[in-house]
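Reopening this one. Same input as before:
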Amino acid sequence: MKAIEVKDLHRYYNGVKAVQGISFDVNDGEIFGFLGPNGAGKSTTIKVLTGQLRPTSGSAEVVGCDVVEDRQELKPQIGVVFEYQNLYERLSARDNLQFTARLYGAKKERVDEMLELVGLEDRSKERIQNYSNGMKQRLLIARALVHKPKVLFLDEPTRGLDPGVAREIRSIIANLADSGVTVFLTTHYMEEADRLSDRVAILHQGEIVAIDTPEALKEAYGEEDRATLEDVFIKLTGKDLY
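Same output, byte for byte:
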């Protein structure tokens, strides 16, 4: 079974075609990079795949659940880390995780496991409002994993982080995939996408213009022997990264 299957997906907003007939699938345990300029339709696609938006037409299944018909069954199967940090900042890290664990019926020991995974066990009793940006991002990942989801959606997980923290986050992502978690990743950092992704899709104006492994895309679209994924991205979209 594929972790994600999308067929001819459309999503319109007041006549604006945000997503235009995209089709793709994601394998179990794969890190799938979903790349595109701002406004290309990445966030809209994630919202459809996580049951937050209904597609205008087409279909999508995540871990075998139809994103429209099986929304309640889908929720326990996925974890989501949004670009914005929606934490309860007056609570501690432990309280944040315990609250989420209760919502999903996760075992209590799972909270300690997640704090250890992201390296926050020593500061778990501090209020989130005192955390650095990087610590908050690590906590978001812990929260998204506390109920053992099969698919993790990461929307710009290292944006605005210093290089050291970003490296830690990338290491966590790689280890999750090694453990069998499917990761759906959006990022503006092409080097990050190149390092982490088993395959990438490049989205432009609501359409997928290329999908393959990073190496295959660089070979197919790069004009030089040392072409980067950023070179491919700019060639296919005509856009700078920001």
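So the earlier flakiness isn't reproducible anymore. For the record, Residues 44 and 60 are 13 Å apart (CA to CA).
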